UniProtKB/TrEMBL annotation:
Acyl-CoA synthetase required for both the import of long chain fatty acids (LCFAs) (C14-C18) and the activation very long chain fatty acids (VLCFAs) (C20-C26) by esterification of the fatty acids into metabolically active CoA-thioesters for subsequent degradation or incorporation into phospholipids. The transport and fatty acyl-CoA synthetase activities are genetically separable and are thus independent activities. Esterifies VLCFAs in the peroxisome matrix. The VLCFAs are actively transported into peroxisomes by a PXA1-PXA2 heterodimeric transporter in the peroxisomal membrane. This is Very long-chain fatty acid transport protein. GO terms for cellular component: endoplasmic reticulum membrane; peroxisomal membrane; plasma membrane. Gene3D superfamilies: 3.30.300.30, N-terminal domain of ligase-like.
Amino acid sequence: MLDILLTVLIGFIVLGILVHVRYPWIWLDIQFFLLVLRGLKRFIKWKNSGTFLPDLFEEAVRKDPNKVFLKYAEQVYTYKQADENANKISHCLKELGLQKGDILSLMMFNEPAFIWIYLGALKIGVKVAFLNYNLRAKSLLHSLDVSGGKILIIGAENELIKAIQDIKGPLENNSIPVYISGTSDPPPGFISLTNMYCNASKEPISATEREGVKVTDPACFIYTSGTTGLPKAAIVTHARCLRGSLVGSYADMAANDVFYIVMPLYHSASNLIAFGGVIASGATIVLRNKFSARCFWDDCRNYDVTIIQYIGEICRYLVAQPKNSQDGIHKIRVAYGNGLRSDIWQEFKDRFKIPRILEFYAATEGNAGFLNIDNKFGSVGRLSPLLQKIFPVEFVKYDIEQGAAVRDSNGRCIKAEKGEAGLMVCKIKKDSEFDGYKGQASLTNSKILQDVLVPGDQYFNSGDLFTRDDMYFIYFKDRIGDTFRFKGENVSTMEVSNVLSSCSFIQDACVYGVAVPGYDGKAGMAVVSLTEHQVELSNTHLRDIFHHLQELLPPYAQPKFLRLEKEISLTGTYKQMKVSYSQDGFNPAAIDSPLYIVDNRNKTYVVLDSKLYEEVVRGDFKL
């Protein structure tokens, strides 16, 4: 008997070794499966019982009513107080005539009232359209029109009031009343929500008020940044809200955690993932009205923050701050978010002593995402052949010049190889639906690829390029709109940005392509901002940039133009305004900022003046 057991044991050991040699990534798959299974069980339980975000919040209230839910500056609210404030908003909205299925538009900075209004609306089945508070004029009108909101609620800040006053005529024509939260004495033409709120009942809202709301119904609408056109209102269902809240569980978020939210609450990262995760875990929120690199770590220490979230360039701004003896002194155990660039990843982790970075990839309207649970440098997650059987995501070859996926003679997309940049596409099926954009069917259809691998299939086009390594870790490469082609070669703006930013005197870089007469494709141009105490690019700096780029980049990828700015323009969600810069071109007569052009003969960059510009346009000056 002992011999048999020993033989079986040896067999298992040999089998394990063979599997490890043949499939070294399988153990990572098993670890991921176990983690996802835990979240999936919670999601199925919620879905089957008809439990949505307001139900999870009320459950947390019942469990520990006196636990601190929200800290904002000097204000502190328990779960019970937050629930009562949300109830008051529910009663206000009912008094204003809003019913289950109606929509309200909301434009506010980060403040407690934002959360009361959102929760209050969800309690009675009202949907919320989150407007980017940076929108103005045409973009703001478009967003309001697309939202279909019966009313608009705004914060009391003067800049928000001014933005609405500028479009007051069209709003009145559409009979959309505007309510202000935060003042009892509103300007003419506005109505005080505060006065109603102060007199409203805080009695509980019955769950029957939202009876009949389905998990596939919209809970809110979150707008894309609109960097390439007018904002699109992505439909966010209750199911998507629940899935977003589960990201916190992958970071082992628990009731004793304190989550620091600095990103705008109108954005999916802070709303679906951070806010939703806190509610699902019964944790505490520390809310700040706007991100401040100078105050970030002090806030984390003062509020005993344990989890932080990043997006876009936030980490870069933190790294750019002067080094401090307090760096790394905090209680943070995990930072999660997306867009942490590889050139500062290790510095951010080491300098600020972040034990774990949970980088993820997701799009507000997307039907798939990745999560780097392995703390793997630079990666957004993994997708092995085994995981691919469960998560129907493909990476297909993409033609930058044609602006389309490459197809074979049968009209089918061609899968990208490991190590090759491929366009991520996600199969649309029952459990990975693409909900699209509200009121914009043509835009919704434009994001769907047909006949990708077999006739009749449909895939969501993420618009993003990725590469994979031998262990199937995935690395974000670039947006297809951010990748351009010059002299027959594809150029990744992210790669060039990372190289430029590694110059000791360059704070940040925004890279894009500009059309130049006589050249196919687009030539590279980079907006750069300098580190502290640097105000201009000296001749030494310009030579150093040239040699730095020459050493690390192929000739076609080296920027032909430089533009110096004090700060690089960003959207409200910290995305670089590449489209706007690209539209400016490289004409010194149209740009006030210092411009430079590559001088290959003298191995440097030189000032681009009107005379040199004309030579480039005529073809007399070769790039």
